[in-house]
Amino acid sequence: MNADRPNRRLRYSCGAGSAQPDWWSPNALAEVCATSGRRLSMGRPIEFGYFAPTGSARAGGREFEPALRRALDIARQSFSSVWFSDHFMFEDAPIHEAWVILSYTAALVPDLQLGHLVLCNSYRPPALVAKMAASLQSLTGGRFVLGYGAGWKQDEYLAYGYDFPSAAVRIAMMEEGIAVIKAMWRDAQPTFQGQFYHIDQPWCEPRPNPAPPLMIGGDGEQRTLRAVARHADWWNCYSRTAEVARRKLEVLQQHCAAEGRDFGSIRKTWSGPVIIDRDHQAALRRAGDRLQGEQPPIAGDPSAVVERFQELAELGFDLFQVSFDQFPDTADMELFAGEVMPRCQA
Known about the structure:
By secondary structure, the chain is of the alpha/beta class. The protein has helices spanning 28-36, 64-78, 98-108, 126-139, 154-159, 167-186, 224-231, 242-259, 280-287, 302-314, 331-344; strands at 12-13, 41-42, 47-51, 81-84, 113-116, 119-120, 144-149, 191-193, 198-200, 214-217, 234-238, 267-276, 298-300, 317-324. The protein contains eleven helices and 14 strands. It has an eight-stranded parallel beta barrel, surrounded by seven helices. A two-stranded antiparallel ribbon has the order 1-2.
């Protein structure tokens, strides 16, 4: 978290005088609400980040950069952060490399936090990531968040010449990569010898001060959420319904208990697409079959979209990194900023 920004973690209550634990046991939120007979209320505003595109088939070539600038101008007015995915290809769509576009954007939004959703550990040596992150943290005045993950997109791995080991190996590599990164941020000329990576007294100056928050993306219940409990400052849940997200939070809490980690010390973030229209049915038609998938978008008119975010906020999510499907048109983004965000942050 940027030291210059207030901690905007939500606080919840079910009425005056209600207890507010630092962390909750499975189903505790539902039990408290059922006892009080009242809906959870938000004590502090939630934050919204703009999950920006790295490219667009509808705005390719030289059209993309001015379109991105227009969207970032809107983001500066309403959003607290800007985020980019880390992919090299989605079939033949024109997309830009994640570090390049984030570094470019950092100069355009000098007052917003920045990060990736999320970097793939396999694509760059973790020692290099540590150096790149330290440099960006220094040059942006402490606005960088290191979003990190184990990687999943097999066709991309193979097309670009990377091995694609099992999920268990990729997650083990990610955890070892995190150990390298933290050592380089923490120590002068650290040494590390692991199964997958090693470093031999590298300098990483200027070391980041403060160190960027580490946000791990993913919600695999056996290994990824255990890694979150062990290592992460923040957790990112991608496009899950409130029902599924509740289950993931319960599993994360169990891993925290097993690892001796304070569940409440991990910031919970949610990212995903928003399909919004003043015409509720029009939004649902745009969403189409995606609404039946495992990671459905939030879709509907402003009131329906507000309700979905309130459901997630009641579970403890306090940062929502949202993307929009109409880029380079920004009408949906402006509708969201004008009619959803104020109602969620009231």
